[in-house]
Amino acid sequence: MSTDQACRLAGRVPADFREVIRTRRSVRQYDPNFTLSREEIKSLLADAILAPSSNNLQPWRFLVIDRPEDKRKLYPIANSQRQVLEASATIAVLGDLEGYKRARDINRIAVERGYMTEEFAAQQAERLLAVYGARGEEALRRIVLIDGSLAAMQLMLAARARGLDTVPMGGFNHEQFIEAFRVPATLVPVMLIAVGKAAAEGRPTARLSVDDVTTWGSF
């Protein structure tokens, strides 16, 4: 492993978080010769899964598309966006409609780490299974789309902190994606995220001011 790879894998970040959020751009042109190892991608995902989620149920799931043949398969599904072919990988962020069924597993880990008592963990898991199990698909879909988006944003910031570039993509055919990549019926596509090294900088974008988008107290 090269020194550069070791630094990226270790997740060395700029000292100022403001630099990360101000230099993140949506990049659409990537160096096709730059590659990320699966260990480096796992390091990014390890940061992404620290995002918050409803009742800590962590319903995000990830499909990493990094093989050339899979990139070519994704290309027409993603409206022929070239970043799908040129980026090191495209990560599909998915939301698991049955993610709440892992409540016992999550709480078991919490008990092992001393975060919960066994009694509280069991009671909470039963409550969550009952509450989420009674919700309809549309309500569960809204929850996993929000939670998946939180993980997606954290992934993009983690990439930028490593000097990498990303672009989120909602413009793809969800039905074709599900069919082509054999996505289980319980998983909902949230977005695609291309990740790699920019071949050209993403363009700056104008932002509304805080005063333009903020109301205090009540509308």
Question: How are the SSEs ordered, and which strands pair?
Answer:
Blueprint: H1 3-10, H2 17-23, H3 38-48, E1 60-65, H4 68-77, H5 83-86, E2 89-96, H6 103-112, H7 118-133, H8 137-161, E3 165-169, H9 174-180, E4 187-196, H10 210-213
Antiparallel strand pairs: 1-2, 2-4, 3-4
Helix pairs in contact: 1-3, 3-8, 6-7
Structural class based on helices, strands and sheet pairing:
alpha+beta
* CATH class assignment of the domain at 16-97 and 139-198: Alpha Beta
Strand content bin: 5-15%
Strand-and-helix sequence, N→C?
HHHEHHEHHHEHEH
Shape: globular
Strands across the major sheet, in which order? 1-2-4-3
Number of strands: 4
**Might you state the CATH topology name of the domain at 16-97 and 139-198?**
NADH Oxidase
- The end-to-end span amounts to 56 Å
Proportion of residues in helical segments: 40-55%
Name given to the CATH architecture of the domain at 16-97 and 139-198 = 3-Layer(aba) Sandwich
The average pLDDT score comes to 93
Which consecutive residue ranges, at least 5 long each, have pLDDT under 50?
A: none
CATH H-level superfamily of the domain at 16-97 and 139-198: NADH Oxidase
- Sheet bearing the most strands, described? 4 strands, antiparallel
Total helices: the number is 10
Radius of gyration: 19 Å
